[in-house]
């Protein structure tokens, strides 16, 4: 058996809620060409001149409102997940963040320190769906550092698991208890992305958003299509929960800049739903496996205010999978299946 190490990779958070730390984090995040895909100079001027200076103080306040004594909820929940996944393996399990700390280099070093004869590293991106601004940039970042450092171990990557039966089961089971309360609809709110990113990620350049009902027609593009993948996740979960089509819908949260983004927007739907007779709402955010700023502040707090202010009567946020047992078992299963090649993305060394 190869001496194996595991890296769980999440998005990352600022080191603290201070404005300079949040500004540094936003600069690194938004200067990523897979997040703001504008030419370098334009991106630089936009991020350094407009977005970061105005957003950092606002975001710092938002982070302050959700911060834990251990630090960022996203990072602490990723650490807790690491500890639970470690119980399944003899080899070391560690974490890395795409932005901020711990970096990929720190993660590789941690694994090597704990297992100097490391032969294989399995990367688990903590994103069920493929998007160039989440899954792809995380994998490419780990891979760039891997190549630069010329490590002798192999690097294998768990593919997007949006339809993996164990993931679907874990997500459905996490929602199930909430369905016994009185509710009108379940809203699946996914992190939004610009429509342009869907087009860019389509290798055929002729399917996504070009063919009617593209997400439902077989295509090679589905391997890298965020909207297709989240649609499938939602439909599989709804089926597992025996929900009819009028009991759920999809929306997209967390927009930035004015480009056309995937629609409908969560914020707009929260304002409209009460007027359409949906007064009691359940809301879940399956693009995230760990609770974070975008769920704890934007959805659980601000979203609730918006919905109740618009005439809603009850609003229940369903937490992310975090350290749920079925989810921990799923992560362990995804890692084991990498060797069976079922959910592995081929990596050239
Ligand atoms: C599904 C995963 C994510 C995708 C896809 C994604 C795309 C994306 N995000 C921004 C801009 C921001 N996102 C921010 C926070 C944030 N985003 C994700 C995940 C995805 N982003 C997470 C998990 C978090 C929370 C991090 C935390 O510390 O808790 C932020 C920063 C916060 C803020 O200031 O509001 C920004 C900005 C873009 C532009 C984008 C796609 C193009
Ligand atoms: Fe984001
Ligand atoms: Fe598509």
From TrEMBL:
Residues spanning the membrane: none
Pathway: Porphyrin-containing compound metabolism; protoheme biosynthesis; protoheme from protoporphyrin-IX: step 1/1
Function: Catalyzes the ferrous insertion into protoporphyrin IX.
Main EC class the enzyme belongs to: lyase
Origin species: Haoranjiania flava
Cell compartments where the protein resides: Cytoplasm
Signal sequence extent: none
Biological-process GO terms, alphabetical: heme biosynthetic process
UniProt binding sites for Fe(2+): 191, 294
Protein name per Swiss-Prot or TrEMBL: Ferrochelatase
A molecular-function term among this protein's GO annotations: ferrochelatase activity
Primary location group: cytoplasm
Family, per entry: Belongs to the ferrochelatase family.
Catalytic activity reported: Fe-coproporphyrin III + 2 H(+) = coproporphyrin III + Fe(2+); heme b + 2 H(+) = protoporphyrin IX + Fe(2+)
Gene Ontology CC entries for this record: cytoplasm
Record lineage: Bacteria, Pseudomonadati, Bacteroidota, Chitinophagia, Chitinophagales
Keyword annotations from UniProtKB, A to Z: Cytoplasm, Heme biosynthesis, Iron, Lyase, Metal-binding, Porphyrin biosynthesis
Pfam family, one: Ferrochelatase
EC identifiers of the protein: 4.98.1.1
Coiled coil: none
